[in-house]
Design goal:
By secondary structure, this protein is mainly α. The protein has a domain of about 200 residues: ABC transporter involved in vitamin B12 uptake, BtuC (Orthogonal Bundle), CATH 1.10.3470. Helix content is about 75%, strand content about 0%. It is built from 17 helices and four strands. A two-stranded antiparallel sheet has the order 1-4. A two-stranded antiparallel sheet has the order 2-3. It is globular and about 55 Å long. It starts with a helix and ends with a helix. About 40% of the residues are buried.
């Protein structure tokens, strides 16, 4: 009998690779989609996708998407949605542009933009959580409200910041080293910190608990309202960073800054493996989803299709992702 038990024990030990695959199934699935997509793009346009310039063009703007996608994963996981982040991004970037235009150091502008972005996120969170409004409708209204606050005083006029290229802030956050955009490094650091918060910190545990079952989370002693508001504040932080980096990349602030990121950001979150019902999500998958969406826009044009196809494919991947999440709902739960 003892020999039989001893023979069975090794088989009962958990397999490390199997555990890793099972625990990261959504992220690995998203990575597989990215690999297949790149193979297809390479097959249709080998001359373009075998050269560095196309990857450099994507990497230039990819950090902006990552700063938006990563905190949105937290919001969706907690059971909410935020459609106000495009205007928050634009408003925070506006503050940054005004500070720099006034002759102050860009570092001061970055601090001001982050403070404003987090304050706006706090305001949105309070409106949604403590007023008991639907996050879908309330954040959509806040998006229009903030965009109006931008358009009224500026009258739709942009702000040129050509002097940014000579500053230490630009060289540190948005220059190139050996042809590689340095802003990618900062975005990756942001993603790694977010992965730690989501998977290894009590904040991420509480976010998932509140999103899975708010009543049970409250009985465990978690301040569910505070956690929900905190996710909106984090979204405000990411939006502010996205606005600042976008302005640094283009040397110009536009009143419509952020509007073009609404659909791609949502697409990246859902294609990255975060379902809509809360309690489950993946930051790494969302980051890979952002890469997928960024390359879709470039690959479609490089493949010879019109840019009008971009919105079609963004909408298509959102629908397919939601269908995939629904099909896998029992396994997720």
């Amino acid at each position: 009998m003892a020999s039989i038990v001893e023979q069975k024990l090794p088989a009962e030990q958990p397999n490390g690779l199997r555990q890793f695959v099972g625990g990261n199934r959504a992220s690995l699935g998203t990575l597989a989609v990215f690999v297949v997509m790149m193979v297809i793009f390479f097959a249709f346009a080998p001359r373009i996708f075998s050269q560095w310039p196309i990857y450099n063009s994507v990497l230039q703007t990819l950090p902006v998407a990552l700063f938006l996608v990563v905190p949105l994963v937290f919001i969706v996981t907690v059971g909410e949605i935020d459609l106000s982040f495009p205007a928050t991004m634009g408003f925070s970037a506006w503050i940054f542009a005004l500070v720099v235009q006034a002759g102050f150091d860009p570092f001061l502008g970055m601090i001001a933009a982050v403070i404003v972005g987090m304050a706006l996120g706090l305001g949105v969170g309070i409106v949604v959580v403590y007023a008991g409004l639907s996050s879908l409708v309330a954040t959509l209204g806040m998006n229009f409200l903030l965009r109006g606050l931008i358009m009224i005083p500026t009258e739709g006029k942009s702000i040129s910041l050509s002097s940014l290229g000579d500053t230490l802030a630009y060289n540190l956050f948005s220059s190139s080293v050996g042809g590689f955009p340095i802003q990618v490094v900062w975005a990756v650091i942001f993603v790694l910190v977010a992965i730690f918060l989501y998977n290894r910190h009590r904040f991420g545990v509480r976010v998932r608990a509140v999103g899975d079952n708010p009543d049970s989370a409250a009985q465990m002693g978690i301040d569910t309202k505070r956690i929900r508001v905190a996710t909106f504040v984090f979204m405000g932080l990411g939006s502010a960073l996205a606005g600042v980096f976008s302005t640094m990349i283009n040397f110009t602030w536009w009143p419509s800054a952020g509007d073009a990121y609404l659909l791609p950001t949502l697409a990246a979150v859902f294609v990255g493996g975060t379902p809509t019902w809360g309690g489950v999500g993946t930051v790494a998958g969302g980051a890979i989803g952002a890469v997928i969406v960024s390359f879709i826009q470039t690959g479609i044009v490089a493949g010879g299709l019109s840019g009008f196809y971009v919105q079609f494919f963004n909408g298509l991947i959102i629908i397919l992702s939601l269908l995939g999440h629904r099909w896998n709902q029992i396994r997720y739960r």
